[in-house]
Amino acid sequence: MLAQFFAARRARRSLLCALVGAMPAMCCAQTAVANPGDSAWILVASGLVLMMSIPGLAMFYSGLVRTKNALSIFVQCLAIVALVSLLWLLGGYSLVFVDGGSAQAWIGGLSKFGLRGVDRGSVSGSIPEYLLFIFQLTFAAITPALVIGGFAERIRFSSVLWFAALWLLLVYIPVAHWVWGGGWLARLGVMDFAGGLVVHLTAGSAALVCALIIRRRRGFPEVSMPPHNLPLTAAGAGLLWVGWYGFNGGSALAANGSAASAVLATHMGASAGALAWMAVEWFRYRKPSVLGILTGMVAGLGAITPASGFVSPLSAICIGSIAGVSCYFATLLIKRVLRVDDTLDVSPVHGIGGIIGTILTAVFAATRFGGSGFSVQRPIAAQLGVQALGVVAVAAWCAAMTWLILRVIDALVGLRVSEEEETEGLDVASHGERGYSI
Questions:
Q1: Nearest-5° angle of CA 27, CA 30, CA 34?
Q2: Cα separation of 392 and 346, whole Å?
Q3: CB-CB neighbours of 262 under 10 Å
Q4: How confident is the model at residue 377 (pLDDT cuts 50, 70, 90)?
Q5: Is 215 exposed, middle or buried (0-12, 13-18, 19+ CB in 10 A)?
Q6: CA-to-CA distance for 227 and 62, rounded, in angstroms?
Q7: Domains along the sequence of the chain with CATH
Q8: Which percentage of the chain shows pLDDT scores above 90?
């Protein structure tokens, strides 16, 4: 009996050892599991980027317009975020990130329409796919919201909604797929870490076309139209700066050194842009303005966005400084020389900033300047050519599609409010409310 007992004990021990030894293989056979640290960071980053749209951008833009139009900016930002959110679920995400088969170079597929086939256990990389969806949604939402600065104070609210929906479909989704979804620009090796092409250049190009097609506000440029509430704008700018940590750092899609590098580069680019704009203005007018340092900060942030995960902190300072000075003079050119009424300077700040950052990525991402190196092994001159091609292609596509969208909307519902409504202000004329007591 005693011998049988010990024999059975040895058999159980052998079975236990065999099971323990087989555990790694069993785990490998299971479905991939999301990394908790990466997931936690992208959850936070998603909230930060959403905060950039509402309330960050809404406050920033609202303080820059006249009192009678301040509330309309808030409404437009909120409505765009809500509308884009639904459209992103109903095909937007799928068209960007799902394989499009024979059309993959140009657009994705619709197999994940309504997130079909995606559940709580679905993983993309090291994070839940639901989380990838919401993070990318925040980018899709803020981009058309940026564009409204080009036609603020003079457009019908219904036209804003039509524009956001059609522009998302015809501009943002194709360009995002080209760059981030495995499209033709990605295959060429274009480098855009967090949206210099996809977000800032598209928004800036569209804003310029909108300003030209919808035409100037009544009285521009003869009538002074100063911002009505710069403290509100400053508060919104602060939220944008903080939110940009999630915008750029979250684009690593992991809690790792690339994310930390992107956050550090983002902060240095913003700081350099703010001080560069301030220095030029201070030298020219003997007084640095609040609006100037805020706008320079945004220019620096826009320029460092495509390069943030690829360049060193010192390179980020160079990019931010160049953007601060360049965007300052671009603003003077567009507003004062060409007299284009891009109300909130979207094209000279985001558009030019996005171009500068995208082009300079080809220089400062090189290992000789402390960068991470190019995604495809090639000389700097070759990468410069790829980056320049990306800029030209995206700007041309965006301008053409934006022009088409505006013409269609104008024919169907009209773009501008009446002269009486513009004089009264969009808060009352479009929404029947006043944001401020008069």
A1: 90
A2: 18
A3: 28
A4: confident
A5: middle
A6: 9
A7: 36-431 (1.10.3430.10)
A8: 90
